[in-house]
Amino acid sequence: MVSLVEPISKLENHPVVDNAIDELASKGYAIVPNFINPENADYLYRYALGLKDSDWQQAGVGRADNYTTNTQVRRDRIRWLQAQDAVERAYLDTMATLQQQLNRQLFMGLFDYESHLAHYPPGAFYRKHLDAFKGRSNRILTTVVYLNPDWQVHDGGELVMYDDQHQVLQTVLPKAGTLVLFLSDTFVHEVREGHRDRYSITGWFRHNTSINGVIDPTR
Ligand SMILES: O=C(O)CCC(=O)C(=O)O
Ligand SMILES: [Fe+2]
C-alpha cells in the first residue's frame, strides 16, 4: 500500500492551517484552498474511483435513530471511513492533527471525528439543510474536502452556504484539495446539481456529550 505523499505531521504549524483557524474564529467558517496537496488529493480521488459498487451505500437523511433515504433531498452515495484501511486512516490522521490544533488554539473541546467519502453522480444534489440542530446533535464542526481535479464553473456542483438572512454567503467550487470548515448548527448549505462525477470527504468533529442520558450514536 502506497502512503500519502506528504506526511500528515507537516500539517503542524502549516501557515494555511493557522489562517484557517483565524478565519474560523472570526466568521464561524473557513475556506482553505490547497489544504490537501495535489498529489494527495489525486491519490484519494483515485482511491475513490477504484472502489466497487458494494463499497458504497445510498446516503440517508436524519439521525441514526431516524434514518431515511430520501432521494428528493439528497442523491449521493457514501462510504464511512475506517481506520483499518491504510488510505482512509491517512486521511483520518490528518484530521486528528487538525482537531488537536483547533482544540489547542480555539479551545473547541472537539472529542472525535466521523467522516465519509461521498460520490455525487451527474445530476446529484443535496438540498438546503443544516448538519446539526442546536441541543440535538454532537456535531460541532463540519469539514468537507474535495477531490475533483480540474473542476470548472460549468461543471456545477457548487457548495452554497447561506447566512441567517437566507442570503448567499459563499459559493465554493469543489476543487481538489480545498477544505471547507463551518459550525454545523449555524450555516444552512446545499450542494447544487453537478454535471460530472463529484467526489469529496465530508466529516464532523463532535463533542462528547450525551443526550437524554443516551450516548450519541456515531452516525
Ligand atoms: O459536499 C459538500 O459540498 C457538502 C456535503 C454536505 O453538505 C453534507 O454531506 O452534509
Ligand atoms: Fe451538509
Q: Describe the sheet with the most strands.
A: 7 strands, antiparallel
Radius of gyration: 16 Å
- Report the mean per-residue pLDDT as an integer: 86
Q: How many beta-strand runs?
A: 13
Structure summary:
One of its GO terms (biological process) is cellular response to hypoxia. Helix content is 21%, strand content 28%.
How are the secondary structure elements laid out?
Elements: H1 15-27, E1 29-32, H2 38-49, E2 57-58, E3 77-80, H3 86-106, E4 112-120, E5 126-129, E6 139-146, E7 159-162, E8 168-172, E9 179-183, E10 189-191, E11 198-206, E12 210-211, E13 214-215
Antiparallel strand pairs: 1-9, 2-3, 3-4, 4-11, 5-10, 6-9, 6-11, 7-8, 7-10, 12-13
The protein binds 2-oxoglutaric acid and fe (ii) ion.
GO molecular function, one term: peptidyl-proline dioxygenase activity
GO biological process, one term: cellular response to hypoxia
Domain Fe2OG dioxygenase: 106-207
Please tag this protein with its features.
binds 2-oxoglutaric acid; binds fe (ii) ion; 219 residues; alpha+beta; Jelly Rolls; 3 helices; four-stranded antiparallel beta sheet
Structure description:
InterPro entries: HIF_prolyl_hydroxylases, Oxoglu/Fe-dep_dioxygenase_dom, Pro_4_hyd_alph, Pro_4_hyd_alph_FE2OG_OXY. It comes from Pseudidiomarina planktonica. By secondary structure, the chain is an alpha+beta fold. It has a single domain, classed as q2cbj1_9rhob like domain (Jelly Rolls). The protein is 21% helix and 28% strand. It has a 7-stranded antiparallel beta sheet, with helices on one face. Strands 5-10-7-8 form a 4-stranded antiparallel beta sheet, with no helix packed on it. A two-stranded antiparallel ribbon has the order 12-13. Strand 12 (210-211) and strand 13 (214-215) form a beta hairpin. The chain is globular and about 40 Å long. The chain starts with 14 loop residues before the first helix and ends with a strand.
